Amino acid sequence: RSKADGKGCVSFFEPGMDEAARTRRTMEDNLRAALTNGSFHMVYQPQVDVDGNVPAVEALLRWTHPELGEISPAAFIPLAEETGLIMAIGEFVMRRVFAETAHWQDMRIAINVSAIQMRTAGYAAQVMQLAARAGIDPSRYEIELTETALLGDGPATAENFEILRRLGFSIVLDDFGTGYSSLSLLHRFRVDKIKIDQSFVADLGQSEEVNGLVSAIVKLARSFNLGVIAEGVETEEQRRLLTKAGCMEFQGFLTGMPMPVERVQALFEPHTALRQQA
Ligand code: C2E
Ligand code: MG
Ligand code: MG
Ligand code: MG
Q1: N or C: which end of the chain has fewer CB within 10 A?
Q2: Domain EAL, which positions (predicted)?
Q3: Whose CA is closest to 266, among 44, 75, 74, 114?
């Protein structure tokens, strides 16, 4: 086989692995193609406060695959990160989100950024260019990073972080509590807000320990003077327990599904109309 390939190396792959490698390769090609054939788009999920206002939305990437239909980024971001395609995909996300939201008023927008992007020298400078070209005000935007994104060992991570902050972006620690060093990260990086991971929210009400853990996270956030929001809120009971624990902002299927940009616009169209009349 190796001779027939003419590559002079022996393949140790089982037939099954070969198959997996081919599938992976096909997915990679599809991902690459998706960047140019318009099969990526953004949806926006409301973040709701205790009074039912929507002060912010989170931008979430969607990929409409030719055969598989709509695929969650959870399924393809890891591959995009391994292949380096995440840089181009991340640039698409920034461009698209800035373009779609530049004219919004009184609405904050959260954008997810991958660890690989944060680890890349010059990343924040690129964001600066995109922001300037789109004419957006960075202070209306929140960059959502996971703990892994801040654990990058090179100097680039810290530098990108500082530049993004200086530009005026807020920084949110996503999936808070699931990593290894949440607490030391809070100490090392000046973040603005933490997002309680949905796994804690899902377990709320199942035991006093989980309820206590969530209360402790909220207290921790307060003591660091940080904002706090819970994600994955699906039931009234979860919202009630979160409120009891002192968490006043919610994101989840209970308070709003991720929706296409036109639907978000409709949420505050009346305001826009009034403002234009004035
Ligand atoms: P995340 O940033 O933690 O986003 C929350 C995920 O939970 C989203 O999944 C959202 O659709 C889902 N979700 C929202 N409400 C509920 C709920 O009530 N219950 C449950 N079970 N799930 C809920 P999604 O959109 O599939 O995204 C998955 C992950 O992919 C995101 O997790 C984020 O880490 C990543 N991601 C999404 N968009 C982007 C992007 O533009 N760039 C990068 N680098 N990563 C992205
Ligand atoms: Mg997020
Ligand atoms: Mg999250
Ligand atoms: Mg998550």
Answers
A1: C
A2: 24-272
A3: 44
Inter-residue contact 266 to 67 (CB < 8 Å):
no
> What does residue 31 show for φ and ψ, rounded to 5 degrees?
-60, -45
State the Cα–Cα distance between residues 169 and 111, nearest whole angstrom. Answer: 10
Q: Which residue from 231, 236, 238 has its CB within 8 A of the most atoms of ligand 1, so it is best to mutate?
A: 231
The pLDDT score that the predictor gives to residue 15 is 61
Interacting residues of 75 by C-beta distance below 8 A, sequence separation 6+: none
H/E stretch holding 83 reads helix 73-83
Q: Which long-range contacts (CB under 8 A, 24 or more apart) does 259-264 make?
A: 259/43, 259/44, 259/45, 259/46, 260/41, 260/43, 260/44, 261/42, 261/43, 261/44, 261/100, 264/44, 264/46, 264/57, 264/107
Give residue 197 CA to ligand 4 midpoint distance, Å: 7
Return d(Cα 55, Cα 23) in angstroms, integer.
Answer: 42
Label residue 84 exposed, middle or buried (CB < 10 Å: 0-12, 13-18, 19+). exposed
Find the 74 Cα to ligand 1 centroid distance in Å.
7
Give the integer Cα–Cα distance in Å for 179 and 105. 34
Q: Does this model's pTM top 0.80?
A: yes
| pLDDT, mean of residues 254-259 | 97
Q: Which helix (H) or strand (E) holds 110?
A: strand 108-112
Query: Which pLDDT score, from 0 to 100, does residue 127 have?
Result: 98
What tokens appear for 199 in the block?
């796994």
DSSP string, 132-175: HHHT--GGGEEEEE-HHHH---SHHHHHHHHHHHHHT-EEEEEE
Neighbouring residues of 100: CB distance < 8 A, sequence distance ≥ 6: 42, 261
